Amino acid sequence: MSPVTDAVAQSAQLGWVLGVMTVAFLTSFVGWTLWAWWPSNRERLDAAALLPLEESP
Amino acid sequence: MEAAPLSAPRYDDASVRRFITATVLWGIVGMLVGAILALQLAWAPANLGLPWTSFGRLRPLHTNAVIFAFTGNALFAGIYYSMQRLLKTRMWSDTLSSVHFWGWQAIIVLAAVTLPLGMTQGKEYAELIWPIDLLIAVVWLVFAANFFGTIAIRKVKHLYVALWFYMSMVITITVLHVVNNLALPATLTRSYPVYSGMTDALVQWWYGHNAVGFLLTTPILGLMYYFLPRAAQRPVFSYRLSIIHFWALVFLYIWAGPHHLLYSALPDWAQTVGMVFSLMLLAPSWGGMLNGLLTLRGAWDRLRTDPILKFWVAAITFYGMSTFEGPMMSIRAVNALSHFTDWTIAHVHAGALGWVGESVFAMLYYMAPQVWNRKLHSVSLATTHFWLATVGIVLYVVAMWTAGVTQGLMWRAFDEAGLLQYPNFVDTVRTLNPFYWIRLLGGLMYLGGIIVMAWNLYKTATSDSSNALEA
Ligand code: HEM
Ligand code: HEM
């Protein structure tokens, strides 16, 4: 392959990799955020925050 | 949570005590070797002209001792202590706990013998030769079995976020260690990696970066989420934020390794991936830092009197500093200046002495009185330790930043004819020498601090029962 097609192949590869990763990470990020802030999880997570303080040493 | 019986189950604190003792002893050894290295760089005769005491052989001894012996034992102490209490159960198996402890110490002793003898695989942070690597794999899996066994018999259903951080360490280190050390043994002390060329470099820095990520960062954050609320006597600022912090951090960390290979033969696109992910890491890192600092809301007045909180605040601040610096150094143009210079060494030790070291000290000052059931011998000595450590770090880091930038600028300086202005490497070495002495001073202060701590904890552990926490 010529240097030009090489470069094109490389940037196409980069576009693909970054594109797929961006979508995957964004989806999971939104997913965790929704889960953490979902109203029905609120009580459970607020209680969980107290776990380290529960027991005297 | 689910109302667990409050008749406290008896915990295995003997293991915690052993790991704490090992942390302190190896910490002194590892940092003493660090100080010797600092002296050697300032004053070459300190190499003593012997192969076993030369810089090249002692440097991996330092890194292995402080990362795997000092930090490693500290992580195990904190994890054994906190996980039993968070899950309200004793560790799954006392036998496995013992094998884990003694196995880990055996590995450290083997490292301390083989490295000065010059036996090495030549991979940074994975220098140990293949038989020791096998032993590491076995001992680590023993720990993993004990860890997951304890989770399986837990009496509290919800896994508190600290445990997620620990879990990510247990799983990730297993994979990293095995994959990076795949090699064909030739003799008992020599082997050839199964990878070659650029692939070898990429695997090595995927390992190297994530060893930093999953030994020096993630588990310590988990410990912060347990020990900081205990020290501050209030829950973490936002538990939800800690969940986002966890997932974002572990997902982004894994991809950032190529920032160690900028301007190398690694394909450009892979370098860019490393750079972009490093920049994104800033967000969860600072989210975690703010979550830690804001946990102290309403407790700031106690900072004046409580050395444990002092250590936490300084540690978290250094975490914020090095996780700002790291993403900047991942930008190609900045890395072009910082790479190969003492700037990297400044970055490393802001993280290692500031974040890792001071978190460990905070944790030890909290834990030791609990597991020996004695009041801390001296709060004022702990405060002295804090100031020795913090001023020591500042001297070390500022000296190395200055040295690093000076070094980088000298290497790239041209004269009017377009020739290198400082073609002799020794020109830079001469210029940097005063900074190396300042670094040694900072390192000695830091080392002095940990010796003060060792004395303080020894007096705590051996005092008589009139000093018990609870009668
Ligand atoms: C008294 C404290 C310490 C002193 C005086 C010290 C000194 C040094 C010196 C002189 C070097 C070699 C630098 C070079 O090659 O130019 C070094 C490297 C290193 N140290 Fe320390 N150190 C100390 C504590 C620590 C601790 C506690 C950690 C980790 C938890 C640590 C982690 C490292 C690492 C990872 C490197 C290799 C850095 C790289 O390759 O970029 N050090 N240290
Ligand atoms: C967002 C967080 C971070 C990023 C993006 C980051 C990025 C970087 C970069 C770009 C380098 C220089 C690579 C080179 O030029 O060779 C580096 C080196 C290093 N960093 Fe970080 N860093 C971060 C946080 C930390 C923390 C918290 C610690 C320690 C506790 C740490 C420990 C190290 C070590 C040990 C090295 C030296 C590796 C070697 O060359 O031997 N980093 N980091």
Write up this protein.
The complex is a heterodimer of chains A (57) and B (471). Chain A contains two helices and no strands. In chain A, 75% of the residues lie in helices and 0% in strands. Helices cover 72% and strands 1% of the residues of chain B. Residues 1-8 of chain B have low confidence and may be disordered. The two termini of chain B are 29 Å apart. The longest helix of chain B has 38 residues, at 425-462. Chain B is built from 13 helices and two strands. The A-B interface holds A 10-11, 13-14, 17-18, 21, 25, 28-29, 32-33, 35-37, 44-55, 57 and B 1, 6, 8, 82, 85-86, 88, 156, 158, 160-162, 225-226, 229-230, 233-236, 239-240, 243-244, 247-248, 251-252, 255, 267-269, 272-273, 276, 370, 469. The structure holds protoporphyrin IX containing FE (HEM) (2 copies). Residues 31, 34-35, 37-38, 41, 59, 62-63, 66-67, 71, 344-345, 348-349, 352-353, 356-357, 443, 446-447 of chain B line the site of one protoporphyrin IX containing FE.
Write the layout of secondary structure elements.
The complex is a heterodimer of chains A (57) and B (471).
Chain A lengths: L2 H35 L4 H8 L8
Chain B lengths: L12 H30 L12 H33 L6 H21 L15 H23 L8 H20 L2 E3 L5 E3 L3 H36 L6 H15 L14 H27 L12 H23 L2 H7 L3 H31 L6 H33 L13 H38 L9
Antiparallel strand pairs in B: 1-2
Helix pairs in contact in B: 1-2, 1-3, 1-11, 1-13, 2-3, 2-6, 2-11, 3-4, 4-5, 5-6, 5-7, 6-7, 6-11, 7-8, 8-9, 9-11, 9-12, 11-12, 11-13, 12-13
One protoporphyrin IX containing FE binds next to helix 6, helix 8, helix 9, helix 10 and helix 11 of chain B.
Provide the structure class of chain B: mainly alpha
Helix content percent band of chain A? over 70%
Gross morphology of chain B? globular
**Which two protein chains have the largest interface (Cβ within 8 Å of the partner's Cβ), and how many residues from each?**
A-B, 28 and 37 residues
CATH class membership of chain B: Mainly Alpha
> Percent helix among the residues of chain B?
over 70%
Rg calculated over all Cα atoms of chain A: 22 Å
Query: Could you report the average pLDDT of chain A, rounded to the nearest whole number?
Result: 81
Distance between the termini of chain A: 67 Å
State the order of secondary-structure elements of chain A, H for helix, E for strand: HH
Return Rg of chain B in Å: 22 Å
Strand content of chain A: under 5%
Number of strands of chain B: 2
What is the β-strand count of chain A? Answer: 0
Oligomer: heterodimer
